[in-house]
Design goal:
Length: 80
């Protein structure tokens, strides 16, 4: 493994799950090994931490996702 990124523990668990499920996000979602100790953390988030966002934060996240989605799909006119 030549990747030298330093991951948080949660992101390291996500990377392990990606490795375990051959880099398939869908397979991680469908993981049948519910008694695996990593199972609750397989999405790369801590299920014990619930975040509450303000309306401004929600709007900023929505705008960010739309911008990234437009870039990814080529819908962004700046990329044309
Ligand atoms: S939770 Fe599922 S995908 Fe993640 S390491 Fe365990 S068995 Fe593999």
């Amino acid at each position: 493994m030549s990747d030298t990124r330093i991951l948080t523990p949660i992101k390291a668990i996500r990377a392990k799950c990606m490795d375990c499920m051959c880099d398939s996000h869908v397979e991680i979602k469908l993981c049948p090994i519910t008694d695996c100790s990593l199972y609750p953390y397989r999405f790369g988030t801590n299920p014990n931490i619930k975040r509450e966002y303000t309306e401004e934060q929600k709007q900023a996240m929505t705008a960010h996702l739309r911008k990234n989605n437009a870039t990814f799909t080529g819908e962004n006119s700046q990329n044309a």
